[in-house]
Design brief:
Length: about 190
């Protein structure tokens, strides 16, 4: 088998990072390299041509997930130009939706990666990216009262608890209660 072109190698790397980003959010960073490469449609050996280690891929895939989150938020804010409250309301509605609950692979990396990132060393790039992503999301959620961290904690907690109780009526009750609490008496009404 011949060597792949530089363009194909870059495309393969992008595919692995994208696949890893989705699988890590869905299943956690413990996904094996073999399973990850199979999901990307590449050989296990190809992994080591692209990445120095699985930890390097976790770093890159975490950054990729947060880049997707930032692009999504930027697009949402653009749709509601000059209407911060409406933009925040739409974000809360989407975040606390059954669709988001049921699709962690394409969902928020804050909720999906929290326990894995907590186990990472403080000097890891994935942890730095995660920390910056949490701060940026809290800033986005903040209003005149600067309570973005409280709002983020409510969103995060509700999503994680609703995923853990999925299949019971409590799951959707958690989403609805958190949504009502975030909307009631705030600038996002």
């Amino acid at each position: 088998m011949g060597r792949v072109s530089q363009a194909q190698a870059e495309e393969n790397r992008r595919r692995v990072v994208d696949t890893a980003s989705r699988l890590f959010r869905e299943q956690g960073t413990q996904v094996s390299v073999a399973d990850l490469m199979k999901a990307a449609g590449l050989t296990h050996g190809a992994f080591y041509k692209q990445f120095a280690s699985k930890e390097a891929l976790v770093d890159e895939a975490t950054a990729h997930a947060f880049d997707e989150l930032a692009r999504s938020h930027t697009a949402g804010l653009t749709r509601y130009e000059g209407q911060r409250g409406a933009a925040q309301r739409a974000l809360i509605d989407a975040y606390l939706s059954v669709d988001h609950r049921d699709d962690p692979a394409d969902g928020c990396p804050i909720a999906a990666l929290a326990t894995d990132i907590a186990r990472e060393g403080e000097d890891r790039e994935a942890r730095r990216v995660y920390t910056e992503g949490v701060a940026d999301f809290a800033d986005l959620l903040g209003g005149d009262d600067h309570d973005g961290i409280v709002r983020l904690c409510t969103l995060f907690g509700a999503l994680v608890l609703s995923r853990a109780t999925k299949g019971s009526p409590l799951s959707e009750e958690i989403l609805a209660a958190a949504q009502a609490a975030l909307i009631r008496g705030t600038a996002v009404e």
